[in-house]
Amino acid sequence: MKESCYRMRKLIFVPLINKIATMTTIKKIALGKNGPLVSKLGLGCMRMSPVWGGPKNDENESIATIQQALDSGINFLNTGDFYGSGHNELLVGKAIKGRRDDAFISVKFGAIFYGNQMLGLDLRPIAIKNFINYSLVRLGIDTIDLYQPCRLDNSVPVEDVIGTVADLIKEGKVRHLGVSEITADQLRKVNSIHPVTALEIGYSLADRQIESDLLPTAKELGIGVVAFANTAEGLLTGEMKAPLPANAYHHHFSRFQGDNLVKNLEKVEILKQMAKEKGYTPTQLAIAWVNAQGDHIMPLVSMSRRSRLPENIAAMEIAFTPDEMNTLNTHFSAGAILGETYLQR
């Protein structure tokens, strides 16, 4: 009886939430201390392109998704010059044509791909100056709002990498400096060279290792946090089942292998139960948890279909009771999820 009542509630309640979400104006926050105003929810565009060799999505649907996101008040669009070898930037460029002022464009650079395989990084100043010219042309814009190396390694002195972006800011080709997937020490060093506006990093109930040092450092320095992988590569959606299909990319990571996956999916059951009781999906609760971690933190959610927008917008309105938040934080404490992903490299 309880299960049938839940199904009935979901049939009525979720469409209502979706309808309300389409009318909701997304909250705006300052990206970093005294930074630009951006939507509290960001749109990740990567999955609209075949980054790892997968099939292309329907371009018209992808463009329509970006435009509907803009219509809904989501102005933060995240892309990378290596997403689909420039395909993603071209896509975003088509979507924002004629409405540049509606969009805040975040671009990552530095990764070198060939044959759908990442070969490494090229962070030389001469390469960065080349990368940005191609990005500006593909996007059809004169200035990139947030420009960031996708990672930092020791191949090029960090002073040269960040100094080059600082020069691009002086030239008017870039407005703000961002960084992605770096350590707390690296963040301090970069910020000492040029003020950092935003840190892009993976963060979810299942990946909380950054809470010990990186998040506190970003907050101390007044740097905004753009948090991707809110569902931990699908683990927290409540839809993943063991064993995974043989061709799933997840097999590369120990979190999704053997007994680790079985035990990790058992941990997700409490999220599924809470979602059922609150009348939402586990994905919505996973996004809502990230959103609740602070006004300086933006959930960056990947979407390629308009049908995903209402539920993800609705997730931004979800509130947790103190008991619910305590349950989630205790159950998904740091280290509770077994195995690693690329976020632990």
From TrEMBL:
User: What domain of life is recorded for the organism?
Assistant: Bacteria
Q: Keyword set for this entry? A: Oxidoreductase
The secretion signal range is none
NADP-dependent oxidoreductase domain segment(s): 40-330
Which molecular-function annotation in GO is an example for this chain? oxidoreductase activity
List the PANTHER family: AFLATOXIN B1 ALDEHYDE REDUCTASE, ALDO-KETO REDUCTASE YAKC [NADP(+)]
Q: What is this protein called?
A: Predicted oxidoreductase
What is the species of this protein?
Answer: Chitinophaga ginsengisegetis
